Amino acid sequence: MELEPTDIRAAAIAAIQAADSVDAIEEIRIKYLGRKGSLTLLLRSLGNIPAEQRAAAGKRANEFKNEIESALEQKKYELTSTAARDLLRAQWIDVTLDCATATQREDLGRLHPISQIQYEIEDIFASMGFEILDGPEVETDYYNFEALNMPRHHPARDMQDTFWTEDGNLLRTHTSAIQIRGMEKVIPPFRIVGPGRVFRYESTDASHENTFYQVEGMMVDRDINVAHLIFVMKQLLKEIFQREAVVRLRPGYFPFVEPGFELDIQCLICNGAGCSVCRQSGWVELLPCGLVHPNVLRMGGIDPKEWSGFAFGLGLNRLVMMKYGINDIRHFLSGDIRFLRQF
Ligand code: PHE
Question: What is the mean pLDDT of residues 228-253?
Fold first, then answer.
């Protein structure tokens, strides 16, 4: 039996109203408006009816088509917004809830105080045009000693008790090895810093640890002298301690610098008057440094007649201990959460 256009329309509208899902809407669309849908077939059959009725019938069928289309759209919109509302209701969270008062607050963790100071120092040096370099923790004799003007049997090797590996390599005793690797990598003039973990074969106590951290620094240019060294060191200390630092140089011996110094900083606790931190001296030993020995430049392929430089080795553990008043270096690697939570 041929369906009347009005019946098709009525059936479609009723079905749309009863639909309870977007899928059902799509089925209805196909059933009436799809390629073989009843209204589509009806429109296609218009050619068969007498010409004088055709225009009116076509107009009416098209109106029904538009009506069904908009009813479909409308219902689909209603269904999707209800679905979204249901989802919102079911998965509601209170984004204003203060996590500090929530019962199961996650502890996010934090950076180790050594990492914190290392990153801070890297930023300070980067702002002064220094490049940050890296080097391996297991080093060769050449990079750790030989190229630093400490040939085999040099007595200065005794200053650094060394962990040797069975194949004749070693755990680097200082970051100075990065100086040598740096000179192989960059050409003068240059400024580099090399932070890292170093190792000494030591028995531990409150101020000695077998594993600790240094930042090596090296600047090579024409006519570098001790004034450049002092300026850069003062600039660094000013940034770290947020105040002007008074420093002094004492002679210090390291085979890879000449002259070599120990740089002291005026005690920040008593401003030089003398207290228990500086053992009544007014000064705290901070870092060894000096002008790069010509032999070291030569080993790095740099002509000491044309270039000169300074170098320093900053101990990070000592710095953090001074900054926070920590009295035992062994806390750093203890893994004790009560210590670490304080930073
Ligand atoms: N590498 C030396 C040490 O760890 C420190 C140092 C670095 C001294 C650079 C002078 C210049 O003992």
Answer: 94
